């Protein structure tokens, strides 16, 4: 049950209301944005909620028990703070969202209607549709450790302990030529073997994508060149001469942990666990 201030309750009971919807979005990188379906911007709680004409929202679907509440918001990429590049780069993935019902004539009269996170975002040209999921969807995600042969730690985290700032596991380079927005030849990485940076992380340090981090799909060393392919397209796209640094990748196997990082003491997998073949084999007569 919602708790309303006496002033807001009186406004709702008056029969003549001045109400609008406001959305507060907190991205994982710390950026906080506000949007409203009102025709003028509204400010409260230290945030300005930008008027975003063309925003429409579906009805909120409620369910009993632990089922996930959801709705969809559709709109156009017309805001200077809501860009196609940010959506493509995944900066809104799993962003926390709060939905308010607000008296735009007196924004201090408001109530928090829903909170949750952004799920799937679909884009069509300059328009987008974002799925807003209730907090109950986190209860449907698996937690805890999974018993498997491969390691479940992230390379360089507190459980892994590999120092990715070491020159042995880190390289710096420059883009020489583009083959696509996510595939290019580079200089500066000649001293590293093929696939050393596969599954690693590339961070742009100059150009339009400066500061953007993207996972590396493939690192290939040829006789006269080195090629990097990313999992996702970079913003811009990047251009010849853009600089970056790149950290080593790990395929989570015990042999790689031992040979590349000499870190088997911190390996977080179970390389000796029996596989499906062992579990399904038929015992022979003694």
Topology readout:
Elements: H1 6-13, E1 19-26, E2 32-36, E3 42-44, E4 47-51, E5 56-57, E6 70-76, H2 84-88, E7 96-103, E8 110-124, E9 127-134, E10 170-180, E11 183-187, E12 201-204, E13 213-221, E14 226-230, E15 243-247, H3 254-261, H4 276-280
Parallel strand pairs: 2-4
Antiparallel strand pairs: 1-2, 1-7, 3-4, 5-6, 6-9, 7-8, 8-9, 10-11, 10-15, 11-14, 12-13, 12-15, 13-14
Structure explained in plain terms:
It is a single chain. This protein is mainly beta and 286 residues long. It folds into two domains: 135 residues, Pnp Oxidase, Chain A (Roll), CATH 2.30.110; 100 residues, Thrombin, subunit H (Beta Barrel). Helices cover 9% and strands 35% of the residues. The strands form two sheets. The protein has a nine-stranded mixed sheet, with no helix packed on it. Strands 10-11-14-13-12-15 form a six-stranded antiparallel beta barrel. It is extended. About 3% of the residues have low confidence.
Number of domains: 2
Can you summarize the main beta sheet?
Answer: 9 strands, mixed
Question: How many DSSP H or I helices?
Answer: 4
Summed over residues and divided by their number, the pLDDT gives a mean of: 83
Shape annotation: extended
Q: Which structural class best describes the helix and strand composition?
A: mainly beta
Distance between the termini: 68 Å
Rg measurement, Å: 25 Å
Number of strands: 15
CATH topology of the largest domain: Pnp Oxidase, Chain A
> What are the secondary-structure elements, in order, as H or E?
HEEEEEEHEEEEEEEEEHH
CATH-defined architecture of the largest domain: Roll
Helicity level, as a percent range?
under 10%
Strand order of the largest sheet: 3-4-2-1-7-8-9-6-5
């Amino acid at each position: 049950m919602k708790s309303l201030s006496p002033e807001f309750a009186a406004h709702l009971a008056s029969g003549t209301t001045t109400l609008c919807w406001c959305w507060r979005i907190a991205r994982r990188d710390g950026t906080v944005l506000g949007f409203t379906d009102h025709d003028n911007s509204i400010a409260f709680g230290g945030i300005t909620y930008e008027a975003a004409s063309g925003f429409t929202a579906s009805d909120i679907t409620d369910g009993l028990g632990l089922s996930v509440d959801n709705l969809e918001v559709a709109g156009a990429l017309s805001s200077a703070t809501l860009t196609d590049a940010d959506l493509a780069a995944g900066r809104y993935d799993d962003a926390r969202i709060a939905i308010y019902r607000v008296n735009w004539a007196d924004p201090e009269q408001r109530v928090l209607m829903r909170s949750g996170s952004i799920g799937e975002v679909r884009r069509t040209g300059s328009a987008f549709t974002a799925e807003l999921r209730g907090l109950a969807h986190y209860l449907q995600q698996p937690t805890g450790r999974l018993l498997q042969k491969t390691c479940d730690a992230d390379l360089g985290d507190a459980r892994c302990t590999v120092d990715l700032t070491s020159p042995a596991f880190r390289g710096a380079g420059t883009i020489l030529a583009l083959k696509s927005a996510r595939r290019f030849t580079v200089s500066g990485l000649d001293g590293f073997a093929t696939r050393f940076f596969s599954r690693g992380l590339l961070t742009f340090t100059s150009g339009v994508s400066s500061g953007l981090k993207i996972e590396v799909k493939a690192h290939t060393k040829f006789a006269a060149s080195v090629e990097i392919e990313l999992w996702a397209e970079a913003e811009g796209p990047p251009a010849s001469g853009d600089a970056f640094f790149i950290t080593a990748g790990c395929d989570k196997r015990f042999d790689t942990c031992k040979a590349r990082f000499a870190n088997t003491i911190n390996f977080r997998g179970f390389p000796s666990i029996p596989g499906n073949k062992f579990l399904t084999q038929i015992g022979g007569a003694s």
